Structure formats: C-alpha cells, structure tokens
C-alpha cells in the first residue's frame, strides 16, 4: 500500500524549495552541472519511505522491511533548472533525516556561495623566492628563525 | 601586540619614510588602546566594567561590532569573551589596526608596498611593473618551507593556525582548543576581513573551510590535520 511520507521530509522539501529559486531567477543562466558526489548505493526501502506527490520522490524496491533504525539513502529525482541539474540524496535513520548530500548541483555563482566548491590536493613543501610570508602569528623569538627574517635581512 | 612588522615600499617618493613612521605610531597607539595585556587599555577597562556605554570610543565600538558579527556568523565558534577568561579581541584588532596602517600609507601617496605584521600581509600595487607581490604561506609543519605561493596586488593575506606554544585558538562552542585544522589562509580585499575570517574559520574546525569559502570576497587555502589541502578555485596561486 502507498506509504506515508516520514514527517521529516517536508523540512527537506522546504530547504530544496528555498534553494531552487536561486537557480531559477538569476539573469545570466549558466547551464553546466557539477557532479559533486557519487551517489551512495541505496538501501532497500520499505514502503514507509516511498513518497508519491513531490519532487523528492525516491525509488522504492519491495522486500523485507529493514530494521527500524537502519540508515536509508534515498536519491531525489533530478530537477532541471535553467542553471543546470539539481539532485539531492537524503539519508534517513528511522524517520529522521541524518544527512543530505548534493549529488548534482549547478556551477553558478549563487550556488557556489550556498554550496562552495573546494578542490582538494595534497600538501606540498617548497622553498621559493617570495616578497613576504604569511603564517600564524609568530612571536618575536620565533621570528628570528623565520623566513621573514631572512627576507628582511636580504633587503639590507 | 608584540609582533614584528616589516614594511617594503617600492615607491620612490621621499616623503614616505615619514608616513611609515606615522603608521608605526598608529600601531603603537592601537596596542596601547586595545591590548588586553595592558592594564590601562580601553579593552582592559571595558573588561573591568570601568567604561559606561557612552564612554566607548568609536574605534572600540567598531571592534566590538565586528566581534559580534563573527561570533554570530560562526555560531559561537569565534568568541572574544570566554568563560573564565577576559575579553580578548586581539583576533579582530590586529587585522583592523594593520589595515589602518596600510591605509595611512596609501593616503600619504604610497602605491606599491607590502606590510607584514606578524604574518598578516597587506599589499598594494606591484613590486615591479607587471608582477604581483609574491606572498608565501608558511608550511604548517616545516617552518623553513612554504606550502603555497600567492600573488596579490591590492589585497590582504592572513593565516590562522596552530601556535608554536602557549595560547591556542579556542572553539567558543566547546571552550576547548579548536581541532581539525592545521592552518587556514584567507585572501581578501582587506586585512580586517582576512584576519577575522581566518581566525573565525580556524575556531570552527573543518566546518570552517566551507564557511570561509562562502564569505563574500574570500579565497581559501586550508590544511587539515590529515594534511589534506582544500582551496577555492579562485585562489591566486602563482
């Protein structure tokens, strides 16, 4: 039988609905889409977590209902906006939302502000010719050994 | 604020050394007025409740407003008055005071200069035609190495991180030293913003990286305790 939507879902719909106008009304649409997360494999959902009428419809499979508090990942349907595609993945534990991830998000300025893009890389060490050095506040004693001291000495 | 200050002025205007002296005077004045380590500073007097609300100087009010702004924005991770500790707005005052010094130099006609105050940097113009100022960021674990080199013209660079000894940046939400990041560097249009954002973000721990990246006009270079580097795409790396 069609399931009832867990009480937590309307809160999610509100926050997605609040984000979507950002992507609809900007004057210069920019329609590339950034895939930000590989969607986690979905757990078998019980009928309770299927939703019918809203854009966060999840996929359902029939099967034995999982234990009440198992985490269930549900991927919302793809929403097309004039900036690109939006898709969220919601993890429910019981009937509470325990995490929301953007599976797809547009690569536009308002999106970057709401969901900043960060690139990840490894930490490197280099010595280079520089004009100045930024670091956590050095005390005067530490300064003597610091790169900045070397730079200033070079200028004498 | 016992930190060393370096000033590199490339303009050939001969009146600038006098302007530099006035800028240093301002920094000494800012220290006298706002240092929590001086018993007669405005900050210490405020902490002892010796100042009525209408006796606060406009500068002190401005500093207090900035402190409130960052406390709210970080959900309390950045907090200038912690239980059991005195009021310590150093994180805001330092960037604001050094930015003020840079503006004094600009008003005196300097157009190509770099100020470094204890690791906070303000630059203006170009050291040589066509080149940006090269600002290295100290490697969080190897003090004789850099982890990245940034190019700035009119802008500021501030880094917050684990101190060598003594004081730690406290996460106001827990009352304990902030955890999760080794250092975070912010590039912004002015040092007040860069310094406050770097300190506030460090106090937030790993959440601070995305928070800082969402602050208008801020580029971010952060190193977490797993030695992963996160940076914004617009960071001006040279």
Counted beta strands of chain B: 11
Number of strands of chain A: 7
Over the alpha carbons, how many angstroms does the gyration radius of chain B reach?
18 Å
Q: What is the CA-CA span between the terminal residues of chain B?
A: 31 Å
Total domain modules of chain B? 1
CATH top-level class of chain B: Alpha Beta
| Element-by-element helix/strand order of chain B | EHHHHEEEEEEEEHHEE
Low-confidence stretches of chain A: 1-15, 24-31, 35-63
Instruction: Give the overall silhouette of chain B.
Output: globular
Strand order of the largest sheet of chain B: 1-2-3-6-9-10-11
Calculate the mean pLDDT score of chain B and round it: 92
Q: Look up the CATH topology of chain B.
A: T-fold
Query: What is the rounded Rg of chain A?
Result: 24 Å
Low-confidence stretches of chain B: none
CATH superfamily of chain B: ApbE-like domains
Strand coverage percent of chain A: 25-35%
**How far apart lie the N and C ends of chain A?**
83 Å
The average pLDDT of chain A is 61
Count every helix of chain A, treating DSSP H or I runs of 4 or more residues as helices. Answer: 4
Question: How would you describe what is shown here?
Answer:
The complex is a heterodimer of chains A (156) and B (238). Chain A has 156 residues and is α+β, with helices and mostly antiparallel strands. Chain A has a domain at 9-114. Chain A has helices at 9-25, 109-114, 140-143, 147-154, and strands spanning 33-35, 71-75, 79-81, 84-93, 96-106, 119-122, 132-134. In chain A, strands 1, 2, 3, 4 and 5 form a five-stranded antiparallel β-sheet that branches. In chain A, strand 4 (84-93) and strand 5 (96-106) form a beta hairpin. Chain A starts with 8 loop residues before the first helix and ends with a helix. Chain B has 238 residues and is an alpha+beta fold. Chain B has one domain (5-231): ApbE-like domains (T-fold). Chain B has six helices and eleven strands. In chain B, the strands form three sheets. Chain B has a seven-stranded antiparallel β-sheet. The longest helix of chain B is centred in the N-terminal third of the chain and has 19 residues, at 16-34. The two termini of chain B are 31 Å apart. The mean pLDDT of chain B is 92.
